[in-house]
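Journal club prep — side note

Before the paper discussion, L.F. wants everyone to see what a predicted structure for a comparable chain looks like in token form. Sequence:
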Amino acid sequence: MFSAIARIFRTPDLRRKIGFTLGIMALFRLGSHVPAPFVDFPNVQQCLAASSGADGLLSLVNLFSGGALLQLSIFALGVMPYITAAIIVQLLRVVIPHFEALYKEGQSGQAKLTQYTRYITIALALLQSTTLVTVARSGTLFGTGGPASCQQLLTNDAWWAQLLMIITMTAGTGLIMWFAELVTEKGIGNGMSLLIFVSIAATFPTAMGAIWVARGFEVFLLVLGIGLVVLALIVFVEQSQRRVPVQYAKRMVGRRTYGGTNTYIPIKVNMAGVIPIIFASSLLYIPVLIAQFNQPAAGEEPAEWVVWINNNLTTGDSGFYMLIYFLLVIGFTYFYVAITFNPVEVADNMKKYGGFIPGIRAGRPTAEYLDYVLTRITLPGSLYLGLVALIPLFALATVNANQNFPFGGASILIIVGVGLETVKQIDAQLQQRHYEGLLR
């Protein structure tokens, strides 16, 4: 292991790529701590120290920004606009034939879809930055009932000052996209995935330190031990796959013989990744958002449905919230897998190139068999995702940790997924130059 790591730094090309990637990561983290114009930075830091963080969807966005959202920095929006735009473009393939045709065109179509993703990212960044500046100006970014300094987060309330903040945060999102593309082109690994990895990993020391301070060293060690076990189990499941064997018949093209090979279709247990957790968190935040806009005037009693939402959907330590969250994750897992893996398309491609599954006829029977396998392997995958998503909520109810608990939910899935993919790419680079790679 150590000798393989030493070979990484002895290889000039690989050393240069890793150094470039680390440099971009450092710039990204630096920008996360640079405040936007007209932000009262001392007041923001005081509010951060006095509050427990954000709740609901805001906590998810803050997690993906590496804590930059609540600091109102130039990178406050982080990678969330790009993630949302990529999901939107992927979903539009199902409902707009033009997007599906672009997807099938190959490299030129993919470039066009990437361009659409950039445009949608900038539009979402404008919308989200406007919302963030409005919430910060209203003094409710850290909730109500906090210190008086939390009501004065901006030093200038003029319209031109707010417009400058919106433009700065939107430009920060564009700069993050450029950083990600530079890493993908000149560095190692997928640029956007690595920036998400850095954003989430940056919150780990703070989260673990908060558990140590709040619950003591014994609970800290217990959480650390449980986290390592959870990490090992997630690595095991993320690597698990159902391999459907495929054989290709021999065919003559001129004087050459093609085909006659045996391969397989890898169907992962968790094909949906972290997307169902993001969908479920976003959907559960909608009732809370509606209730916030229906708060009663001073001296009046709130409506019964507002009280019920505040009691059951605001925090994650209630049994009803956990049950709904778990069921939503399962439902969104089936939904996302259904729109990303098309058994009919896979079966048609296999038939076109002379491939077949042993014992299954080509065409419709192959599509039905793939759908049968996919439906049954998605069940344990959805249950696994639901349980992983509930880990932070159990931590909130038992050890009084916030919902950004480091060893569960979207954070640990992204950390493991990006880490495994990056290690595989480094291993492939090493094996091009040495017989032995990083992985054994």
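L.F.'s comment for the group: The radius of gyration is 24 Å. Keep this in mind when we get to the figures.
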